[in-house]
Amino acid sequence: MAHVSLKNVRKSFGATDVIKGVDIEVEDGEFVVFVGPSGCGKSTLLRMIAGLEDITSGTLEIDGKVVNEVPPKERGIAMVFQSYAIFPHMSVRENVAFGLTIDGTPRAEKQRKVQEAARILQMEHLLDRRPSQLSGGQRQRVAIGRAIVRDPKVFLFDEPLSNLDAALRMDMRMEIGKLHQSLDASMIYVTHDQVEAMTLADKIVVLKDGQVMQVGSPMELYHNPANLFVAGFLGAPSMNFIEVQTRDADADAGTAQVANAALEPIRVATAGRPIRAGGNAVLGLRPQYLRPSATPEAGMLHGTVELTERLGAETVVEVALRDGSRVIAALGEDRVLDRGTEIGLEFDPARAHLFPAE
Amino acid sequence: MASRLTTSNRAGWGFALPGFGLIALFIILPFFFAFALSLTNQRLVSPNPTEYVGLQNYGDLLGLAVIELEPERLDDGSIDRDADGNARYPRVRSITRSDDFPQYSGMREWFRWQSGDNARVVIASDVVFMKALVNTLTFVAVVAPVQAALALVLALLINQKLRGINVFRTIYFMPVVVSIVVVSLLWRFIYDGNDGLLNNLLAGLTFGAFEGRDWLGDPSTALGAIMAMSIWQAVGFHMVIWLAGLQTISPTLYEAAEIEGAGRWQTFRYVTWPGLRNTAVLILIVITMQAFALFAQIDVMTNGGPLDSTQTLVFQAVERGYGRQDISGGATISVILFVLVLTISLIQRWLTREKA
Ligand SMILES: Nc1ncnc2c1ncn2[C@@H]1O[C@H](COP(=O)(O)OP(=O)(O)OP(=O)(O)O)[C@@H](O)[C@H]1O
Ligand SMILES: [Mg+2]
């Protein structure tokens, strides 16, 4: 267990700034997930914590000690790579024991720790195999085993599951969750799979272009996204954004009334964001909170059905609104809606998010 | 779009033919010719018809025997000694030319050692060939490991992200692209006994204490000098092969090792060296084959001398076949060399095979 703290951390490769001043706190035993689009600097940040990249400026502390210049080994971290990075010419046993071999750990203790790690990861039967004889999931287990035996204070994972197929990914995701509970170590996990982020994290850090967009628990981020980017990034299908005009804004009550050609006037919370009367704003509606009204004219949004995807327990409907924009509604039932039929959609205004226009 | 030209089988063969024909004419055909000629008494120019002689050429080259000579005794039975106290032995010639020992006829002394009062003499049908064989094997045994190791060290040094590293890559590779004949000529000046660069350099470094020596003219240094120069000349080539091997090793493996706290040597031992396995096999075999083919340096620098101390198999093959017009003798040496290289390569392959 350890506390990791990044203060105004920056990274430049030559003239390109990749990480532009990041502050993150990872508490003891916390599971923190970094998410963000490709190229936003997640891996770079993780590699800086690991000690594989120099920190251009700012401080990195692990357990209260500044470790900017400390070599990886002495930081008390272990890292699991996307490409597994297991040594092809060594058996699974030798791979798992690698860190101990380097340290010159006595044989008996090495043996005991490897067995223990193999037991936790349920791979005792694989110990004498070569990596080439393992499946992707098994290889990743070996990589995790190699991390476990060193008893690190912080585990670092860089997209550990992205080379696996969907079913295996789910299994391994659950295993990593269990591992976190049983090991009680701090973990930092990079992914761009939001399901992994939502299910595993105690705390999610959303990054974009080397900057932190929002930090918070998965539900906080889901229900109260701080900005358009976070709102659009988390949740599937992603949040609908509708351009609206602000009729009036009540700063005292913290609400504003908005409408557009396809939207009946509604009053929504501004959540302290700077929304001005008479201007444009963006209304965010999660597809799951939209439902068809009894009649096409009854709802708050009006349009025609463009496309339906029936998934069994859920029906995803694409609706072309009267103002020409489109929204997606995810209905929690199996429902047949013909293309071209008029439809009205209703929602609870308390579930809507209002953002200033960009 | 595939045009008719690129899909037509006949066009394909047509394009391949000139190259294939030349290879067949100058490499494949002579290869079988060598086998055939080694079983005859063919000479380069000769009025006599060629005859099939079986394995006689091989016997003439490989014939080897050990004879034991008892010291000459004086009338009283004591050993006859010369002024220095060394025993006198009958001359080897008395045996090899004697009708009592037809099996030794024509053989000459190669070397001898003392065993009790007696002397054991190794006699060979072809002493020059034997010297060439030993020199070649020595050359391979020294050059192959030293050159491979040196090339690896250079490859590790230049496999770094440093400013201007390409300058070093170019410098180390340069001797490879210069003709070996030119390189040999240059090194003849470097090794020159009177005013050579090496002598001057050593004299300078030792403040004149070093007295120059004739590196190529002294039987004890000639082969070593040629080895040193050969290693220098081709090391860049093997460095490039090592470098290619180094660059196939995934950088993440190095990062994983770094995180686990591996030092420089441990990283080499656990990541780099295992990753170079296949490259190592390739390099070992290529160097061995190249070293066995040692010729140009000898031809330019020493002509096999002094005192046959730099004779080699290929030099002997050429010298016999063209110098002495003994084509069948030269062919026989080529075949022996072929078998030797093939055997060693197979052994190397077997020793370095992937263990399941
Ligand atoms: N060694 C480097 N030199 C120069 N630029 C680099 C280097 N490494 C990364 N970058 C740049 O830094 C940015 C962030 O890269 P990074 O690998 O951290 O992204 P990421 O968020 O992990 O993306 P992904 O989800 O695709 O893995 C990218 O724009 C990348 O091009
Ligand atoms: Mg990445």
UniProtKB/TrEMBL annotation, chain A:
UniProt keywords, alphabetically: ATP-binding, Nucleotide-binding, Transport
Domain named ABC transporter: residues: 4-234
Gene Ontology CC: ATP-binding cassette (ABC) transporter complex, substrate-binding subunit-containing; maltose transport complex
Species annotation: Halovulum marinum
Pfam families: ABC_tran, TOBE_2
Cross-referenced CDD domains: ABC_MalK_N
Keyword set includes Signal: no
GO MF terms held by the record: ABC-type maltose transporter activity; ATP binding; ATP hydrolysis activity
PROSITE patterns: ABC_TRANSPORTER_1, ABC_TRANSPORTER_2
SMART domains reported for this sequence: AAA
Coiled-coil region: none
InterPro entries per record: AAA+_ATPase (IPR003593), ABC_transporter-like_ATP-bd (IPR003439), ABC_transporter-like_CS (IPR017871), ABC_transpr_MalK-like (IPR015855), ABC_transpr_MalK/UgpC-like (IPR047641), Mo/tungstate-bd_C_term_dom (IPR008995), NA-bd_OB-fold (IPR012340), P-loop_NTPase (IPR027417)
Family: Belongs to the ABC transporter superfamily.
This protein's name: sn-glycerol-3-phosphate ABC transporter ATP-binding protein UgpC
TrEMBL record, chain B:
Gene Ontology process terms (BP): transmembrane transport
Membrane topology type: Multi-pass membrane protein
Keyword RNA-binding among UniProt keywords: no
Similarity comment text for this entry: Belongs to the binding-protein-dependent transport system permease family.
CDD domains per UniProt: TM_PBP2 (cd06261)
Gene3D superfamilies (alphabetical): MetI-like (1.10.3720.10)
Species the sequence originates in: Halovulum marinum
Pfam hit, one: BPD_transp_1
Protein name: ABC transporter permease subunit
Keyword Cell inner membrane listed: no
PANTHER family: ABC TRANSPORTER PERMEASE PROTEIN, INNER MEMBRANE ABC TRANSPORTER PERMEASE PROTEIN YCJO
One GO location term (cellular component): plasma membrane
Main subcellular location of this protein, as a coarse class: membrane
